[in-house]
Specification:
Layout: H1 5-11, H2 18-34, E1 39-44, E2 49-50, E3 58-59, H3 66-77, E4 81-87, H4 101-105, E5 107-110, E6 117-120, H5 122-140, E7 144-149, H6 152-166, E8 173-177, E9 184-185, E10 208-209, H7 214-221, E11 226-233, H8 236-250, E12 254-259, E13 266-270, E14 275-279, H9 282-286, H10 291-309
Parallel strand pairs: 1-4, 1-8, 4-7, 8-11, 11-12
Antiparallel strand pairs: 2-3, 5-6, 9-10, 12-13, 13-14
The structure holds ligand PAZ.
The site of ligand PAZ has 13 residues, from helix 3 and strand 11.
GO biological process, one term: coenzyme A biosynthetic process
Family: Belongs to the PPC synthetase family.
Organism: Popillia japonica
Length: 312
């Protein structure tokens, strides 16, 4: 049995930077609400499940945050202000294009003793310039707020705080829940304080179900918002049924279903009324188009229709 969400908050302390993040969220939402802008909350990357209070080991999942980081850029392009709530050290909008050695390889070092300079290689300027321009524009206009989580408990605290701040936006708030959130965890009260010792033998680790936050999120925290959740599966036969189950249970607007193996080329949009595939053509793939461009465009159309039909 999953523990109840209220019980979870009572028994798990907020992360240490929680109050700072709450203030940032509040200021960001108030500022953009006062100008009538839409805000997209994009969650991204995977949560961890610690095995010890002084955490040396934890259960993790595969998500690198590609979908969330790319989608955040497309929401900015579509004129949204974006709260990018992501796993620490997962991919981020803009910098994701130059991960690892790629960035270093774009630079040239001109070593002239005390007058050392660094320049961008001429053939890299075309690649760097548009990304840098978009990054600077987002920063200078204060259109993006970055907040981070690591554990599933951090994520829970941050998500509720973000929802509390987004509530006053009503239907102008869009929640795009692409993070891969653990379904299982070890309650804080059952965690050992210190590193598990191998000298006592192989540990038996017993995981419990996490409470499903979509329930209070949709019905209590942001009842007027446009909520989009993601559903990942590895068995194609159950994907649409699971997405539809989720819609029936939580009564939100849209589930984007995706398969682990094909998620970069194809997703399925499941609404209470219908389901349809959104996929990249061969030509779009060759031209380097990203599926998040299509996903976000479709979500924005649905959000606009929702806003147009919203009865205050
Ligand atoms: O981070 P990524 O781009 O590698 O993967 C994205 C994703 C598969 C985690 C996302 O599209 C998704 O399905 N998130 C929800 C996962 C779930 O809880 O079912």
């Amino acid at each position: 049995m999953a523990s109840h969400w209220e019980e979870f908050y009572k028994t798990h302390l907020p992360p240490t930077d929680f109050e700072d993040n709450r203030s940032l969220l509040k200021e960001f939402c108030e500022r953009h609400n006062s100008t009538g802008e839409r805000i997209a909350l994009v969650t991204s990357g995977g949560t961890t499940v610690p095995l010890e209070h002084n955490t040396v080991r934890f259960v993790d999942n595969f998500s690198a945050g590609t979908r969330g980081a790319a989608s955040a850029e497309y929401f900015l392009e579509q004129g949204y202000a974006v709260i990018f709530m992501h796993r620490t050290k997962s991919l981020e909008p803009f910098t994701r294009h130059f991960n690892g050695q790629k960035f270093m390889d774009m630079l040239e070092l001109h070593d002239r003793g005390p007058n050392t300079t660094i320049t961008v290689k001429p053939d890299s300027v075309d690649v760097l310039a548009p990304v840098l321009a978009n990054y600077k524009a987002a920063q200078e206009t204060g259109k993006i707020l970055y907040v981070t989580f690591t554990t599933v408990s951090d994520y829970f605290w941050l998500l509720r705080a973000a929802c509390e701040c987004l509530g006053p936006l009503g239907p102008k708030a869009l929640l795009y829940l692409a993070a891969a959130v653990s379904d299982f965890y070890i309650p804080s009260s059952e965690l050992p304080t210190h590193k598990i010792q191998s000298s006592v033998g192989a540990p038996t680790i017993s995981l419990q179900l996490v409470p499903k936050l979509l329930a209070p999120l949709v019905s209590l925290w942001v009842p007027q918002a446009f909520v989009v959740s993601f559903k990942l599966e590895t068995d194609e036969n159950i994907l649409i049924a699971k997405a539809r189950d989720s819609l029936n249970k939580y009564k939100h607007k849209l589930v984007v279903g995706n398969m682990l193996q094909t998620r970069r080329q194809k997703v399925v949009f499941v609404t209470p009324e219908s389901s349809y595939e959104v996929l990249l053509s061969r030509e779009q793939m060759i031209n380097g188009m990203e599926i998040e461009d299509l996903i976000v465009s479709n979500v924005v159309i649905s959000h606009s229709n929702f806003l147009a039909s919203f009865k205050y």
